Amino acid sequence: MAQHRHIAHVWLIYHTHYQTIRRAARPRRLFGAYARLSRELTPSDARIKGLGKEIVDEFAVLRARYKTPKHPIVLAHGLLGFAELKLAGSYLPSITYWRGIREALSANQTEVITASVPPSGSIEKRAAKLAEDIAAQAQGKSVNIVAHSMGGLDARYMISQLKPAGVDVKSLITVATPHHGSPFADYLIDGIGPHYLPRLYDLWERTTGWEPSAFAQLTTKYMAEEFNVKTPDDPTVRYFSYGAMVKDRPPLLSPFRHSHWVIQGREGPNDGLVSVESSKWGTYKGTLLGVNHLDLINWSNRLRFTVQKWMGRPPSFNAVAFYLDIGDMLAKEGL
User: pLDDT (tens digit, 9 = 90+) per residue, 205-249?
Assistant: First the structure.
């Protein structure tokens, strides 16, 4: 029930302060042109630059067979994430961050480890908890880390800076991780301003019980001038990454409508929270088209998918198929 109250309080903070933030951080007029452009883009549009391989429907359906990787897969969640959330004890089913993904990997004979790190803690604290979870569950086995969003930054810091004893990482696969920061984090923090930011952080911590250090670390300035400079890749680890983008501006009631608009204006194609450009690290495997930030962990809008089916346009992305394919790719790489 405590976690239930935390979620309600987080929503209250968002609802109370969002309009103030928007007024203070109203984008420049030039963003209007980018907003219109975002509604016109198509996968073959020549104006889309740097997408790498365009993945349209490669993961639309499950294949009959997937290879099993040699080493266990660690699933590392993003900002405000969790491994499992119980809202009413044993009275209601628990909610998992990796919806159906762990079960599918396990059914394919893959050993899966799910980490649970501080939801909005600093990268340093999240990385330390990630190392602790891996050491406790892997029991000395080498691992592959598959990380969504901020989880990729935690993993990079753990590998490069902490180098924990008893944790041997063979590969890191990041999915929509803001390796170069988020323009939306810039937009919000600049809009709130230095006068109100400490107050908002204090309110966040008192209301949720979670420290707010993560937010400032997701800015493009912090990533460029601090994190990436001090967090070099480990030459013994294989690095892979995926990005994603929605093909049209999200609908009016989408939680990503405004953030997509802001990021589109500053960095181009994005999944509603992370741009394609910021997602690139190591070997870039490609851009998932028509996929938003929550679709990537199977938190898709079921009503939207149902309507698409009625209209003869079945969904082009299945998150379970995507992660099974990552496992298959790792197996083929000898990992």
Answer: 888 888 888 899 999 999 999 999 999 999 999 999 999 999 888
Q: Count Cβ atoms below 10 Å from residue 231 Cβ, excluding itself.
A: 19
117, 186, 111: which is closest to 154 by C-alpha? 117
Residue entry with tokens 């990552």: 326
CB within 8 Å of 24: residues ≥ 6 apart:
191, 192, 193
DSSP sequence for 279-329: H--SEEEEEEET--TTGGGT---HHHHHHHHHTT---S--HHHHHHHHHHH
| The pair of three-digit structure tokens given for residue 176, joined into one six-digit string | 């929509």
Check pLDDT > 80 for residue 137.
Answer: yes
Position 277 scores a pLDDT of 97
Mean pLDDT, the chain, rounded, equals: 82
Structure tokens at 260: 């997509």
d(CA 112, CA 317) in angstroms, rounded, equals 22
Instruction: For 122-140, give the secondary structure using H, E and C.
Output: CHHHHHHHHHHHHHHHHCC
Token digits for 64?
Answer: 């009959």
User: pTM value?
Assistant: 0.81
Per-residue pLDDT, 247:
85
To which H or E segment does residue 241 belong?
strand 238-245
CA–CA gap between residue 140 and residue 309 (Å, rounded): 46
Rounded Cα–Cα distance for residues 135 and 98 (Å): 20
